[in-house]
Specification:
The structure holds 2 protein chains of 2 kinds. Chain A is an alpha+beta fold. Chain A has 3 domains: about 1-60; about 60-120 and about 340-475, no CATH class; about 125-335, no CATH class. Helix content of chain A is about 60%, strand content about 15%. Chain A is elongated, with a radius of gyration of 32 Å. Chain B has a domain at about 50-75 and about 95-245: P-loop containing nucleotide triphosphate hydrolases (Rossmann fold), CATH 3.40.50.300. Chain B has 7 helices and 10 strands. In chain B, the strands form 2 sheets. Chain B has a 6-stranded mixed sheet, with helices on both faces. A 4-stranded antiparallel sheet of chain B has the order 2-1-4-5, covered by helices on one side. Chain B is α/β, with parallel strands linked by helices. Helix content of chain B is about 30%, strand content about 25%. Chain B has helices spanning about 65-70, 95-105, 120-130, 135-150, 165-175, 195-210, 220-225; strands at about 20-35, 35-50, 55, 80-85, 85-90, 105-110, 180-185, 215, 230-235, 235-245. The chains are: A alpha+beta, B alpha/beta. The interface between A and B is medium-sized, with 26 and 29 residues.
Chain lengths: ~475, ~240
């Protein structure tokens, strides 16, 4: 008796702890608090929820809980089978809610994936030494007056790398950009990004060749007019033939195509190798004003030692620029982290907006469940009376109707997930560039949400059922 | 005493009463109906022993149903003492009452109250589920209970595939399945034709002979005469409490 009393106190206590830490986890996640603290809250919430479940079952009595659980499941299955149309219509509300949740989830994951894909095209593990920072700056005049970055800084940086092969820096490559029209006979592509670089760029970027090869060191040093073109450019200029060894014209120069980069795909107009023409820096210099071409030194680093790498690169650059100890840096070391930092708040805003919309859809579904559980309780008042007369306890009746509500919700959840999966697959097939990513985490989330919706919306009617006076219920016609 | 020529139908075994099962003393029950207070029971005292076969009679409004609900632990008295197997029931909470109903009382209703979508076997199994019995033990006991009421061949049938008499037999098997201290039957023949009603009463006779304690609530004199003792209620009080000749 005393042991059971302990359990009956423990499980609500654990549930309260779970609710509080769960709320803390959600708030922490939304305001991006210390990740260690957030995961501590999340872990505590999960653990205390599990403990509440365990103590709850102990309080219920395992010997009674199991047969009653299976009985309740059987009753729910029979109820759903007996009221197919009604159950389907009720589940529809939940289906809409779950579709909204998962589609929002796929969209957010898709944005993530799209951004990752675009960024990793540059090479993840690369630092960019340039005149301008990538973030927005108010005091732009301070940056404008900086001396230009010269692409021959590559040499001292490369020398420094060669001196310390075990250091965090690995490889330095110059890059310059200009925009120009590319012409081949009748075909023409306007405003193409022209990238001037060295023959070592392929070591930096994660992009394969569709056909041909990258230009060689000899070609680069000789400043030969050779280019590697992106997939879309090749497609536009050479619709029905291989572009290899053919010539294209940029400004007044003729260039021989030696390679075509593999298709990468683009995302929301962000950078993609598909629409780029790459040529040796020395060839670039002949056509474009290199000073204004955003000269940048790209340095591949050991990602595990990113901070060390930044520091080392900074000291090399200060030496190269001849800065005294009291002078400030007159160059910028950029990394892709800046871009990610700018995208994160956008993602959070989409998530919060989606949160309300899906919350609304789920709320409507939950009202449907509450309503149908109410109707079910009313219809079966006499049955409830009979069950109570035969020895069903309050919690037995509560469990039975809760499980019925949850069953319909889970049915709706599974239906919603299937529908969302189908929709995102269809959208993915029709619009390959549209960002939708379906994942196992979304399935778990969708099912968890349907269970919670079922419990919350079924609770009031189930509680009413459990509190019915057996005398009154038995007399009900 | 019984003449050797007596027909078997007239054979009545009366078993000596055993231990005290139910003891109520000075029980009252008040209902509030709007502004009016109804005295359903005005101080009833009653003792029921093991091996008794008791009928409770009375016109409508006599407090018969209220007394039955009280005896069946579906309801608790406003005042007075109620002990079931020496345990005080009057102050028990909902769940404790549910346990008493599950273990000690087998209900038989006028309208059978079977679950329409479950077969006979599952209907009989139900009290054992609430008792927390394992699956194989449940099916075993439920089968034996159904065989005991003569429905061994009808276990897989749903209520709508059974006749009224058969449905009431399923209900009786359900009442018996958890070996209760008493069987409480509320107008058990009220929804049956007289021939089937007689069959059900014969079944009760058989159960009584097997050692069950039976309480039948009825307003029919013919049914009540099957019992060994009749308690008559009027206006919330016991009018008479006599053995049947």
């Amino acid at each position: 008796m005393r042991g059971r009393f302990i359990f009956s106190v423990l499980w609500p206590a654990c549930l309260i702890v779970a609710a509080l830490t769960g709320a803390a986890w959600l708030v922490g996640w939304l305001v991006k608090a210390d990740p260690w603290l957030v995961s501590l809250c999340g872990g505590t919430a999960l653990a205390s929820f599990a403990a509440a479940l365990l103590f709850g079952i102990c309080d219920y009595g395992w010997g009674v809980f199991w047969p009653e659980l299976t009985e309740s499941l059987a009753i729910s299955a029979a109820q759903v089978a007996a009221n197919k149309l009604r159950s389907a219509l009720t589940a529809l509300g939940v289906i809409i809610g779950i579709v909204a949740v998962t589609l929002m989830g796929t969209a957010i994951l898709g944005i993530d994936a799209g951004v990752e894909r675009s960024l990793s095209g540059f090479g993840d593990d690369v630092l960019y030494v340039s005149k301008w920072p990538w973030r927005n700056v108010q005091d732009w005049w301070n940056f404008r007056n900086r001396r230009d970055i010269r692409i021959d800084y590559v040499e001292p940086v490369t020398a420094a790398i060669a001196e310390r092969p075990e250091g965090p820096l690995k490889l330095a490559v110059p890059s310059v950009y200009w925009s120009a029209n590319v012409i081949r006979g009748e075909y023409r592509v306007s405003n193409v990004s022209i990238l001037g670089t060295s023959s070592e760029l392929p070591y930096l970027v994660k992009s394969d060749m569709k056909e041909g090869r990258f230009f060689t060191e000899v070609e680069a040093r000789g400043g030969r007019n050779v280019v590697v073109i992106g997939y879309d450019i090749a497609d536009a200029l050479f619709p029905n033939e291989s572009p290899l060894d053919k010539t294209i014209r940029i400004r007044s120069q003729q260039y021989t195509v030696v390679g075509v980069a593999a298709r990468q795909g683009s995302f929301l107009g962000m950078f993609s190798w598909d629409s780029v023409v790459i040529m040796p820096v020395d060839a670039f210099t002949r056509s474009f004003p290199i000073r204004w071409a955003d000269p940048t030194i790209r340095v591949q680093v050991d990602m595990a030692r990113l901070d060390e790498a930044k520091e080392e690169l900074r000291s090399i650059m200060r030496r190269v620029r001849g800065l005294g100890p009291e002078q400030k840096d007159d160059f910028e070391i950029n990394s892709q982290q800046v871009i990610r930092d700018q995208i994160d708040p956008i993602k959070a805003n989409i998530a919060i907006g989606g949160f309300f919309i899906t919350g609304l859809a789920l709320f409507v579904g939950a009202i449907g469940i509450m309503n149908i559980t109410s109707v079910s309780v009313k219809e079966r008042t006499k049955e409830i009376g009979t069950r109570k007369a035969l020895g069903a306890r309050r919690r037995t009746i509560l469990l039975q109707f809760l499980i019925e509500a949850v069953s319909i919700c889970v049915l709706g959840g599974v239906g919603g997930l299937a529908l969302a999966w189908g929709l995102s697959a269809a959208v993915g097939a029709l619009l390959p560039s549209f960002p939708l990513v379906f994942s196992a985490a979304l399935v778990v989330l969708g099912l968890a949400i349907s269970v919670v919706t079922g419990v919350l919306s079924g609770f009031m009617p189930a509680l009413q059922a459990s509190k019915l006076d057996p005398v009154v219920a038995l007399r009900y016609e | 005493m019984i003449p050797p020529t007596a027909t078997p139908a007239a054979t009545r075994i009366t078993r000596p009463p055993g231990a005290l099962v139910i003891e109520i003393e000075g029980v009252t029950k008040l209902y509030k109906m709007g502004a009016e207070t109804i005295h359903a029971l005005r101080g009833v005292s009653l003792k029921i022993h093991r091996n008794e076969y008791l009928a409770i009679m009375g016109p409508s409004g006599s407090g018969k149903s209220t007394l039955m609900n009280m005896l069946g632990c579906l309801d608790t008295p406003t005042a007075g003492r109620y002990e079931f197997n020496r345990k005080n029931v009057a102050t028990m909470g909902d769940d404790e009452l549910a346990d008493i109903r599950n273990r000690e009382i087998g209900f038989v209703f006028q309208t059978f109250n079977l679950l329409p979508r479950s077969d006979a076997l599952h209907n009989v199994e139900l009290p054992l589920i609430y008792a927390g019995l394992g699956k194989s033990g449940r099916l075993d006991k439920a089968r034996r209970a159904l065989e005991n009421v003569g429905l061994g061949q009808r276990m897989g049938h749903k209520p709508n595939e059974l006749s009224g008499g058969q449905r009431q037999r399923v209900a009786i098997a359900r009442a018996l399945v958890n070996d209760p201290s008493i069987i409480l039957a509320d107008e058990p023949t009220g929804n049956l034709d007289s021939k089937t009603g007689e069959e059900i009463m014969a079944l009760f006779e058989q159960l009584y002979a097997q050692g069950n304690t039976i309480i039948v609530v009825t307003h029919e004199e013919d049914i009540a005469r099957h019992a060994r003792r009749i308690v008559r209620l009027r206006d919330g009080l016991i009018e008479s409490d006599k053995p049947v000749e």
